[in-house]
């Protein structure tokens, strides 16, 4: 049934179990869209992460963590959907939540946000916040990490920082 979230999730799981994850992903997306804040939607999101992780099993140079790449891609997709102002709201909410500290090595804890549906791990929140800050501060994610590409969004920040100890 197209309007039955549980049936859509079950169908997607069958597709995944029979080796057809590419067919399962759009079914999972549809199931999430039926009710974004349900427990089944959370299961669908976890299944989509499983599909994404399975595509990234190849060795990655430089010790890059595949789950971080998956979380970056998910954050970019989310911020594309919610727009610049929505991204700012998400970043602010995560920063408020993170004020008490987040253990990125704890794989069992899950957090809910008011501004986004679903449950998130601490690592996923930190990655989402990082991507959101970069996206809202620069309008894009810099590809290079050279000093020239990581300009401060605050005009004159570096000059004030350099002059901080002088003339006082």
Q: How many H/I helices?
A: 6
| Helix and strand run | HHHHEEHH
Number of strands: 2
List low-pLDDT spans: 142-164
Largest sheet: number of strands, sense, barrel closure = 2 strands, antiparallel
Q: What helical percentage do the residues reach?
A: 55-70%
**Order of strands across the biggest sheet?**
1-2
Mean pLDDT: 79
Whole-angstrom Rg: 19 Å
Broad shape: globular
The rounded distance between the terminal residues' Cα atoms is 72 Å
Question: How would you summarize this macromolecular structure in one to three sentences?
Answer:
60% of the residues lie in helices and 2% in strands.
Description:
Helix 1 runs parallel beside helix 3. 60% of the residues lie in helices and 2% in strands. The chain has six helices and two strands. It is mostly helical and 168 residues long. A two-stranded antiparallel ribbon has the order 1-2. The protein folds into two domains: 1-55; 61-149, no CATH class. It starts with a helix and ends in a 5-residue tail after the last helix.
Layout of strands and helices, then pairs:
Elements: H1 5-17, H2 21-34, H3 39-55, H4 66-98, E1 111-112, E2 119-120, H5 122-138, H6 157-163
Antiparallel strand pairs: 1-2
Helix pairs in contact: 1-2, 1-3, 2-3, 4-5
